[in-house]
Amino acid sequence: MNLNQNQLQNHNASLLARHQRKLAPWTGELENAEEVIQKLVDFQIAIPSWALGTGGTRFGRFPGGGEPRSLEEKMDDVGLLHALNRSSGAISLHIPWDVPSDVAAIQQRASQLGLRFDAVNSNTFQDQPDQALSYKFGSLQHADAAVRQQAIDHNIEVIRHGVALGSKSLTVWLSDGSCFPGQLNFRKAFSRTLESLQAIYAALPEDWKVFVEYKAFEPNFYSMTVGDWGSSYLYASKLGPKAYTLVDLGHHLPNANIEQIVAILLQEGKLGGFHFNDSKYGDDDLTVGSIRPYQLFLIFCELIEGMDARGMNHADDLGWMIDASHNVKDPLEDLLQSVEAIQLAYAQALLVDRAALEEAREANDVVRAQEILQDAFRTDVRPLVAEARLRAGGALNPLALFRQLDVRGQLIGERGLKTVATGL
Amino acid sequence: MNLNQNQLQNHNASLLARHQRKLAPWTGELENAEEVIQKLVDFQIAIPSWALGTGGTRFGRFPGGGEPRSLEEKMDDVGLLHALNRSSGAISLHIPWDVPSDVAAIQQRASQLGLRFDAVNSNTFQDQPDQALSYKFGSLQHADAAVRQQAIDHNIEVIRHGVALGSKSLTVWLSDGSCFPGQLNFRKAFSRTLESLQAIYAALPEDWKVFVEYKAFEPNFYSMTVGDWGSSYLYASKLGPKAYTLVDLGHHLPNANIEQIVAILLQEGKLGGFHFNDSKYGDDDLTVGSIRPYQLFLIFCELIEGMDARGMNHADDLGWMIDASHNVKDPLEDLLQSVEAIQLAYAQALLVDRAALEEAREANDVVRAQEILQDAFRTDVRPLVAEARLRAGGALNPLALFRQLDVRGQLIGERGLKTVATGL
Amino acid sequence: MNLNQNQLQNHNASLLARHQRKLAPWTGELENAEEVIQKLVDFQIAIPSWALGTGGTRFGRFPGGGEPRSLEEKMDDVGLLHALNRSSGAISLHIPWDVPSDVAAIQQRASQLGLRFDAVNSNTFQDQPDQALSYKFGSLQHADAAVRQQAIDHNIEVIRHGVALGSKSLTVWLSDGSCFPGQLNFRKAFSRTLESLQAIYAALPEDWKVFVEYKAFEPNFYSMTVGDWGSSYLYASKLGPKAYTLVDLGHHLPNANIEQIVAILLQEGKLGGFHFNDSKYGDDDLTVGSIRPYQLFLIFCELIEGMDARGMNHADDLGWMIDASHNVKDPLEDLLQSVEAIQLAYAQALLVDRAALEEAREANDVVRAQEILQDAFRTDVRPLVAEARLRAGGALNPLALFRQLDVRGQLIGERGLKTVATGL
Amino acid sequence: MNLNQNQLQNHNASLLARHQRKLAPWTGELENAEEVIQKLVDFQIAIPSWALGTGGTRFGRFPGGGEPRSLEEKMDDVGLLHALNRSSGAISLHIPWDVPSDVAAIQQRASQLGLRFDAVNSNTFQDQPDQALSYKFGSLQHADAAVRQQAIDHNIEVIRHGVALGSKSLTVWLSDGSCFPGQLNFRKAFSRTLESLQAIYAALPEDWKVFVEYKAFEPNFYSMTVGDWGSSYLYASKLGPKAYTLVDLGHHLPNANIEQIVAILLQEGKLGGFHFNDSKYGDDDLTVGSIRPYQLFLIFCELIEGMDARGMNHADDLGWMIDASHNVKDPLEDLLQSVEAIQLAYAQALLVDRAALEEAREANDVVRAQEILQDAFRTDVRPLVAEARLRAGGALNPLALFRQLDVRGQLIGERGLKTVATGL
Fold it and tell me: Which is one GO molecular function term here (chains A, B, C, D) (predicted)?
């Protein structure tokens, strides 16, 4: 389905007066309100193709209806999100789930929907039906050189698909590791993984980046071969200037200070991208901002601080993507909530009085430093975010409009109640 | 396949001299060696039917070959384990995966294999193809009374199957909970779950027990309605004398002192059973004893202390079961390793000089108390466990014999390379 | 020093116009704004006497200046806080640090400062210089009955002091536990602790409560004898109707769902009180709301829901206290920040549309339930809290006024730069 | 007191027959028994001067008696331990607690006791009475350059003391960090710390090493400026070839895979040393091997594997030290238990059939790899360790002899019941 512009305009018209009343204090009080709004307009978050269907756990999966059955339908779903919030103008594909059959048609569709192709993702954590060798004991780390070569070849193929579509980066998330003490020679696993990554790196086009994603545990439960930012940094450093670390919020040990990791990686010029989600226990892949919104805000404070210090462009110089699993929610509604949570955190972080903050820090005025951050966080920035959406042509309240239009009902009507997204 | 008794005897004969040399110091030095050996002979650990196939994670599953395709073949596998180690003489069924079509035939097979039927397990954490209502938002806690009734009826049906086979207990593990703050009214969820459990309890035969298993997280990632031992204890207390708490080693928050929980529950007369596995991060379901063998030993120290204090019989008065997932190992080999690890911990705990330990405790002699426990733990009790196996008619080295006989190869020959166990 | 009413009024006058502008939308849009403001006025948070000086860690302590040197000066400090925010009208004493020498004079001072005496706290986690027997190996759990009796007597003496001052409750936090496996017989430790508590309970006046506080770890690092809510609940249940569980936010294992614990304890009629602080790793005792403000809000949602369900009075029927350690902040500034954070969370929780929330829950509308909570949390309720302060006679911005008046400088002038609060 | 050689010999004589009976199977069955014993003889673990007195927590401290009152008495205590176990032939000093007044006399005493001086340790986590500027807000990271310079100067002074005594390394453990979000500019804190370390590095003698120790949390509870191995590696890399990372077992987030960290650091040539202790929750500083002995064994497996791969000498090429706190045990008894636990883990790791292990790993035989490790761990190697002690001139059972001789009683007699070690 496509969003009807009349419906969108009617929706906005019905909410406009209230919105303007809420927004009014901003334009008066905040000097740089316009600048913040423009940054919000520019900020785009990629939607991964696998987040459009209902997720699940090892214990089971409870699918919803109307889920996309093809790459085309996945793009339509992202296009719909983007039409609603004007902040989801990119899609991240996963190979082999999303191999395009007709590249030109796919590109045309993307263009119509206003989407670009974000990082492409390889998959060596599962065996595909037609696969010669198994990844049961790893891929790029595997003891058998033939398995490693197969995984390298797959990554190069992923790059090839990405080039065809106009992607500029490859994300390598490895589930490689071990489940039991003794299973792995850690040094060999590291060296083999590095050599494999070097082979992939060699195939990277000049203007591409490769993101080495780390994860503390799961699906391996004793060790992960790219298990923390330190390891990822080592790989990325040894690979070269096109290699970066990718941070996924859910991939850490309990209580990790992720914002500090972000600051260090930015300082070293090695932060490449971000996967947003939220969690309480492990890689729970919950809606962004649903569990620890203050942490999200603190991370954005570091991102802005660190990017500005390097003269990086907020919108383009890091890869921003949602990576969550929607076990008990409508995936599209969940994504609307996630994008909004990211925008709110970004807006709040933009409001931080950084000059005053630095002054407080230099004076060891801990109380004041906290006040400055909390002042920004306690501010209700929803009017700013809504205004940015309005200016960009989106809906004042995307979720409300989604429900009002019964989008899910329409999708079920078009696609059926029992559909399974490829890759789920 | 059946274990050929000749092969077993040849295996034992070939290892006997070495075994006797290793055992010799025991019979000389340890006063109660005979008693320990007898307790080891008596101690039986139930094997769950779902542990006989390759497990997996939400990211994928890498099946092995020769996996059991039916309840009958699952029983054969447990029978084989039992023939090898003489300590796996019970099977725990999972409904609906293991509904017996011909009860009499199943009972006869069990009798031939020397197996009894341990606790039966209900499943309301997944939807079955023919199911009227979904458990997506819980079962016994569900807002809709009709879903709760469906789940109650299922549990009562499970009891009925258990009665037919001679089981004496029902294990209720609920995945009920919530993934997001706000999703659940905790009080209503508790009350509804309690009422549902009361309806199940009412259907329990006179000589049955019901085990209320708790789990801190997964597959729900914000709250679990039976989330810790305190909650489980509350349910069990309110239900009545036939209701008990069941402890699964992997179902706790990081760093929990499980042995203390065991001690308290035993003291309150509310510990009902145990699910053995090991883990480093969450419910990793790794081989028993593969990560924290000392913790396993400490738990057995509390079990023995607490059971003896209440005059309970080690072998019968608690339910002992392995509950693990074999993602990268042959399931049968993993189970052999798990049973051995349990036996070693049990044997070491039996060696603890408890009179001396109590004396040290009463004198606040912390150093001595630690020495006493470590003395037992550092002792190599493998000869004792092997001797127990030998006397009971098992193999001196079950795993070695399993490999020597190429059991897996034979099973693949019989059942095929690509089989899928029901329920996986 | 005393707060000069003129200064207070000048401060408020200077901020009034801006405050009224911020408040204006509330009185128009929020139906029950008046009710929320009144609840905020009524809500009082006790300040513990030990929170008025600089805290420290086992590695060191970096004292500030002007710290209170006596019970009288501690009361003055709380009086000052209360004069600023009108929400700290209670002080919680710690015996033996705060034994009053002249009860009548102390009561008169309290009356002048508008303070009442909250729960009294016993101390059996340290040895006092004149103490006959040591608590090195525990107090109420101790193997030696004489040590237990000494600890019981101490608690009874604490009650006596509390009665003299008008307290109505005793908080028992025990550091009892063990540092090493084997050190403790868990069952004996439990039974001895219970018996000791029963002796204390027997000395409790008719209209008193006793709070049994639990803690997962520290200062004992293997087991704590009152280690979790389940244990505390068991003790409180066995003691009787005057015994309750006390929850301290920092006393849990990583990732614990504290709001669910609150809900269960309220439902069972056994939640007695709260110790507020915040933390990232353990019992870090940081400023309330400085790390996980959303969790604090969720806890207040459960408190309100659960108290209302039982017809409890928010202001009186639970004990509310801050329990933090101010290692790098001015203690009084930290307390002002903490009280504000509590009020904000309370106000936000009061804003939750509970009827709509229940409706969403009953419909399993997870997205909507989350929206409802987030809507309240994302609202900037600072104007409401400031208005409540204003009406109660406090400062619109207590922290700003505290700095403007250079309160700390004055205290240093009065008391000196190098002072040590009793008990620190 | 000095250990009487007659008493030692009598002790050994009384246990010799039993020891030889236990040892006998080894010399027959284990090919490389002699080699293992020799490695155990050579392996020395440094004792830190601050571990000789009773430790404490922020809640209190329960001192024992007969604690050393001076550097000389601390050396005597280590000398005594070394006389008992012949494996504690090094002492690690802490400045300013252990500034030697007469270097020559100290050196002579060390020579008589058979001790060498291990790494010297600086202290910028506390303020000393005569100190000009405070470390309340950090030392090497401090916003104020004068504080940084003071901390740099202190470290250079520590090096000077170390040079005088013959130490060859400096351990820098920084408590620098922050307690609250906002307090610190992470990038500036990193840069300042790096610059300060560079100034210290510049003062390092040619043949010295500097160890940069990391810690996840405590005493700062939001961020630590050297917070994990990745950070420490970055500092050490930027500093140069004399800079290394130091791993303390208790300084990690929950569930960290420390053995993998060890393997990576060894591979990168940046592992410098080790601080041994054990813990369940945080930096609990419990007796080595008292909580997770299998983890200790796994770490030693990686140490041996990694050191051998680089041709490093086990005894000399890494710094080995115990770093624990003895809150409820006699410090000397605790240290005897700790050294024994380290030796057992080392011995078991030496027994691992590494050729077979590599073969299993290359074949992805996870079951076999686990069997190989567990086979070594389940072996009772106490006779080997005792034999090594015997050959080196120590006691067969140091702890038993310590008690038999009533060493603590004698120390109390010499030094008094109420003594306080410098620095505690």
Answer: isomerase activity
Q: What is the pLDDT of residue C31?
A: 75
Is the CB of residue A365 less than 8 Å away from at least one CB of chain C?
A: no
Residue A115 amino acid letter: L
The answer to whether A229 touches A259, Cβ cutoff 8 Å, is no
Element (H, E) at D170: strand D169-173
Judged against a pLDDT cut of 60, whether residue C11 lies above it is answered with: yes
- Residue D334's pLDDT is 98
State the distance between the two ends of chain A, measured CA to CA, in whole angstroms: 22
Q: Do A364 and D137 touch (CB under 8 A)?
A: yes
- Contact A137/B328, CB-based, under 8 Å? yes
CA distance B375 to chain D (A): 10
From its phi and psi, is residue B264 left (phi > 0), alpha (psi between -120 and 50) or beta? alpha
Q: Chain B closest CA to A204's CA: distance in Å?
A: 27
Closest by CA position to C302, among listed A14, B249, D278, B188: B188
DSSP string, A167-206: --EEEEE---EESSTTS--HHHHHHHHHHHHHHHHHTS-T
Using pLDDT thresholds of 50, 70 and 90, give the confidence band for residue B4: confident
Going by C-alpha positions, the residue among C357, C363, C232, C238 that lies closest to residue C302 is: C357
Q: How far apart are the first and last CA of chain C?
A: 22
**Token representation of residue A149:** 């070569």
Contact residues, chain A, for D182 at CB < 8 Å: 357, 360-361, 366, 369-370, 372-373
- How far apart, in whole angstroms, are the C-alpha atoms of residue B279 and residue B287? 8
Domain total in chain B: 1
Residue B378, exposed/middle/buried by CB under 10 A (0-12, 13-18, 19+)?
buried
Going across the sheet that includes C90-92, the strands are C47-48, C90-92, C116-117
Which residues lie across from D248 on neighbouring strands?
D275
Residue B33 lies in a domain: no
pLDDT per residue as tens digits for the range D373-400: 999 999 999 999 999 999 999 999 999 9
For residue B284, give the CATH number of its domain.
Answer: 3.20.20.150
- Confidence at residue B423, expressed as pLDDT on a 0 to 100 scale: 61
pLDDT tens-digit profile of D25-64?
Answer: 887 777 788 999 999 999 999 999 999 999 999 999 999 9
pLDDT band at C399 (very low <50, low <70, confident <90, very high): very high
In a domain, D361, yes or no: no
Do B292 and D294 lie within an 8 Å CB cutoff?
Answer: yes
pLDDT at residue C423 in the model: 61
User: What order do you get walking across the sheet with A271-276 strand by strand?
Assistant: A120-121, A169-173, A209-213, A243-248, A271-276, A319-322
In three-state secondary structure terms, D319 is strand
- Interface check D2 vs A, CB under 8 A: no
Give the domain extent around D327: 44-348
Nearest to A255 among C281, C294, C379 (CB): C281
Q: What share of chain D is helix, strand, coil (3-state, %, to 5)?
A: 50, 10, 40
Give me the sheet containing D47-48, strands edge to edge. D47-48, D90-92, D116-117
Local structure of B248: helix, strand or coil: strand
B291 touches chain A (CB under 8 A): yes
C384 touches chain B (CB under 8 A): no
- Residue found under tokens 């196996």: B389
| Residue B283 belongs to some domain of the structure | yes
Q: Are C375 and B182 in contact (CB under 8 A)?
A: no
- The rounded percent of chain C whose pLDDT value lies above 90 is 93
Dihedral sign from CA coordinates of A301, A306, A311, A316: negative
Decide if A302 and D268 are in contact by the 8 Å CB cutoff.
no
Q: Are A286 and B127 a contacting pair at CB < 8 A?
A: no
The model's pTM is 0.98
Q: Is residue D410 part of a domain?
A: no
